[in-house]
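INFO batch 0412 | record 1 of 1 | parsing
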Amino acid sequence: MKACIMCGGAGTRLRPLTFKHPKPSIPILNKPSVRHLIEHLSREGFNEIVMTLGYMGERIEEQLGDGHMFGVHIDYVYEKEKLGTAGGVKNAEEYLKNEPFIVLGGDHVLNLDLREMYRFHEVNDALITIGLLSIDDPREFGIADMDINNRIHRFLEKPKSGQIFSNLASTGIYICDPEIFDWIPENKKYDFAKDLFPALLAADKRINGMLVRGKWTDVGSSAAYRQAQRWMLDALPGTTIEGNFTTRNARIRGPLSIGNNVSIGSNSSLVGPIVIGENTVIGDSVLIGPYSVIGANCTIDNNAKILSSYLFDGVSIGKNSNISGAVVADETAVGEECNLENGTVIGHEVLIKNNSTIHSGVKIWPEVVIEKGSNIKDTVVNPAYDTAYEGS
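INFO prediction complete | emitting tokens
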């Protein structure tokens, strides 16, 4: 079975994290998000994968190679200009034109039964089958009006209040017959939800929906990113320790995944689920609470608290600092007696000096210096980088 993974977006809503990482490469449990997706596809029997690449695509190809380590074969197709979701898949037509295939987003995190969805499409007569999930608030998604025979009669992308005729939200996972390529123009920006689906419905072509069960999100925002990490942490099977590990009188309660050459000082307390990358040093009397991920080569100094937070590689946290519900990108240094409140997102190579507080929901762009004793209540951008953080 074949799969097409769309990885063209710039990830502006995830900034400042996507200045260094393309959205599919944002780390979840210390490995690129898209790697989890490919491993799931491999387990489900999708062993021929095509990736459509745009923003920082070379980074994704470098991380995944030809796919043999995951038991799949990966081909890469680059977009010279933005072609939209359907246009990007059309650009990969030569790899997909001979049999039905599944389309997913490179930022999808899921545990859905994709094989079941593919089989459903095979035995039903439709050009496209859309995976649908019943959710409480579908305003950020496309919604579908589906009858008892699974046929979709209406589809509306990102409905406003008063337009919500259904809470069946599109997951952005589609099983497609190759015939759809006849409906997608070449070298033109064209989207599945905004362009292709309305055209097919207007021509009375059949689009089916399938209600899927399980966990799914697209990592399009920092809140969705934190949710995806929590799901993955909940699935930790137990405690695993790779290679050398040293501790002095620490209190540790799993589940945990600990990389090679990690050391934990005396009187520290770790309560899982937690993932810690290799070569990380944790000091004395440090509290690391459930649902935390700490990258490789990090330093957590004495008396610090890390609670439900996600630290990328090379992060250092100073003495007596409190990191709660935050995301901190690579090579950032947080000084002593600092407080990062819930929902803060810190870019790479930021320096936060001693006795500073970053208020809830604040984003700090890369390579910014926060002076000693600062009280930051609003997002801080670096004009050396693009300043937009709304959109894709």
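INFO post-check: The longest helix spans residues 222-234.
INFO record closed
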